[in-house]
């Protein structure tokens, strides 16, 4: 006689197979909103995997099942939507800019609040902000992070390139200390390239001295 768990597994697979055949309609695990196949980037296979995880009692993957299935089953867009919402809540009033570009989330950290002048070590006053970032990133494990450093145009180009790399590395190092896996972090320095404001004014240069953290959904493995 089949065990209850086995019956659950069989029922889940059958139900999900029927779902796939009917157009792969799934539910956003956070809101309960229906998502059609057009929104499901990872496809029906991911939905079946999520069903099996949910049907298996005491699964060692249960800790991240809901979040993981958000990315695999309900679509990357929904997963990133909820991550963005949590980041906006945590970072309200901190001076960190948040921009959304498709399935990417960009956090812009101005240098005047993140670093002291001509320094690459993170200012202690900014630790609580990075702690809030790490708190959200730790929950959403299906994302990678590009940490990019930038400077203004004052000083030698080679010096600015090195400073931008060191600043990005400092932010990445802090996040690693807050249990963000090193394999998720990709550090780059762009020096004085790609300014977001004019370097002709003090306020513009302050905006250009920055670190940007771009959160990107992982490709299915």
UniProtKB/TrEMBL annotation:
<feature type="signal peptide">
    <location>
        <begin position="1"/>
        <end position="17"/>
    </location>
</feature>
<dbReference type="InterPro" id="IPR006665">
    <property type="entry name" value="OmpA-like"/>
</dbReference>
<dbReference type="Pfam" id="PF05433">
    <property type="entry name" value="Rick_17kDa_Anti"/>
</dbReference>
<dbReference type="InterPro" id="IPR036737">
    <property type="entry name" value="OmpA-like_sf"/>
</dbReference>
<protein>
    <recommendedName>
        <fullName>OmpA-like domain-containing protein</fullName>
    </recommendedName>
</protein>
<dbReference type="Pfam" id="PF00691">
    <property type="entry name" value="OmpA"/>
</dbReference>
<dbReference type="GO" id="GO:0009279">
    <property type="term" value="C:cell outer membrane"/>
</dbReference>
<dbReference type="InterPro" id="IPR008816">
    <property type="entry name" value="Gly_zipper_2TM_dom"/>
</dbReference>
<keyword id="KW-0732">Signal</keyword>
<keyword id="KW-0472">Membrane</keyword>
<dbReference type="InterPro" id="IPR050330">
    <property type="entry name" value="Bact_OuterMem_StrucFunc"/>
</dbReference>
<feature type="domain" description="OmpA-like">
    <location>
        <begin position="102"/>
        <end position="219"/>
    </location>
</feature>
<keyword id="KW-0998">Cell outer membrane</keyword>
<dbReference type="InterPro" id="IPR006664">
    <property type="entry name" value="OMP_bac"/>
</dbReference>
């Amino acid at each position: 006689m089949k065990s209850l768990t086995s019956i659950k597994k069989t029922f889940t697979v059958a139900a999900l197979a029927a779902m796939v055949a009917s157009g792969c309609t799934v539910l956003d695990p956070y809101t309960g909103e229906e998502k059609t196949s057009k929104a499901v980037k990872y496809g029906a296979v991911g939905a079946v995997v999520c069903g099996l995880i949910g049907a298996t009692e005491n699964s060692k993957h249960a800790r991240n099942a809901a979040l993981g299935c958000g990315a695999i089953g309900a679509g990357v867009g929904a997963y990133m939507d909820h991550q963005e919402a949590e980041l906006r809540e945590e970072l309200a009033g901190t001076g960190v800019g948040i921009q959304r570009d498709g399935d990417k989330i960009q956090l812009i950290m101005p240098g005047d609040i993140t670093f002291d002048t001509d320094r690459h070590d993170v200012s202690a006053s900014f630790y609580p902000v990075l702690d809030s970032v790490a708190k959200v990133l730790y929950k959403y494990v299906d994302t990678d992070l590009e940490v990019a450093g930038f400077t203004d145009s004052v000083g030698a180009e080679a010096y600015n390139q090195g400073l931008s790399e060191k600043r990005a590395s400092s932010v990445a190092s802090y996040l690693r200390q807050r249990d963000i896996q090193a394999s998720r972090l990709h550090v780059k320095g762009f020096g004085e390239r790609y300014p977001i404001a004019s370097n002709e004014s003090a306020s513009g240069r302050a905006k250009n001295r920055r670190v940007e953290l771009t959160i990107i959904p992982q490709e299915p493995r």
